[in-house]
Amino acid sequence: MSLRLSLTDRCNLRCRYCMPEEEYVWLPRTSILTFEEIQRLVGIFASLGVTKVRLTGGEPLLRHDVPALVEMLARQERLADLALTTNGMLLAAQAADLRAAGLHRVTVSLDTLRPDRFEAYTRSKRHGDVLAGIAAARAAGFRKLKVNTVVVRGYNEDELADLIEFGRANDAEVRFIEYMDVGGATRWSMDQVVSRREMLEALARRYGPAQPLSRGAPGAAPAEEFALPDGTTFGIIASTTAPFCRACDRSRITADGTWYLCLYAESGISLRDELRAGATDEDIAEVIADAWMGRADRGAEERLEVIGRGALYDVPSLRADPHREMHTRGG
Ligand code: SAM
Fold it and tell me: Which ranges constitute the DSSP H helices of 181-308?
């Protein structure tokens, strides 16, 4: 199992496919896990064999002093891969501290290279801060940087090759993500989804056909890896048109300690309640192991079977339970 750990449900961008509304219902502050609680939970997951943890959000770097948390988690020797997914806005100032604290890898979300498009899609003029964040991460010594790009028809589907070139110039691998119908994607429709097939066709027109690379250990990564004729590699995450539920090894903890076995799951298990009720590590490990062994979720595959598929939730039901939001679940 790999773990995605959301540090906050707050974000400093308002991406149209994720947080398009003006107002949100936030998780109550007192419910947010402390660093010590996070460290304890990660220790319990690690004792059950989890070696990969990714910090996410909301925007994880909005949380005060993330390097201090990284340092606490990096002490956990069983963690072979401690990574961060960020929109990059606050990365420039923190990259060196994160690296020094023991963070292994960074993924930066970057959907467009054009500041005007960035502003239209995120309601922020600070596109340059994201680019500066990527540069700072490289300068801090992070290798194998990844860039996540959600491809949305009518927005950025004409930038795939430009993003590949950007990745090449910045020693980063780009992963193109199919637009998903989860959480805040309340204006989602199938016709805005640019499928893996279309992405490969567009890149083939520019570079010649890309070759699929073998996927390594089953379930190791949701991204399928491809290589262009010149050897440049990139990934595609085809969760919408070609879901990979059987190979998925991810689970997610929201900032308030609710554990979800699937991005699409209707409900989760409150590990915060266990922690705060005085459960022992062994009690909590048992809750986790039982739930994981009984896991039958295949949310993305079930969505594929829905005829006339639209957004998963409407705005009132997201307001009724903010746990349903993508920015709460951590993407
Ligand atoms: N704020 C951080 C960031 O931007 O990377 C971390 C959280 S964000 C929810 C994690 C990832 O989910 C980002 O790469 C984002 O682009 C992606 N995401 C959000 N909504 C999505 C959607 N509807 N379909 C596909 N990916 C989505």
Answer: 196-207, 271-276, 281-293, 299-304
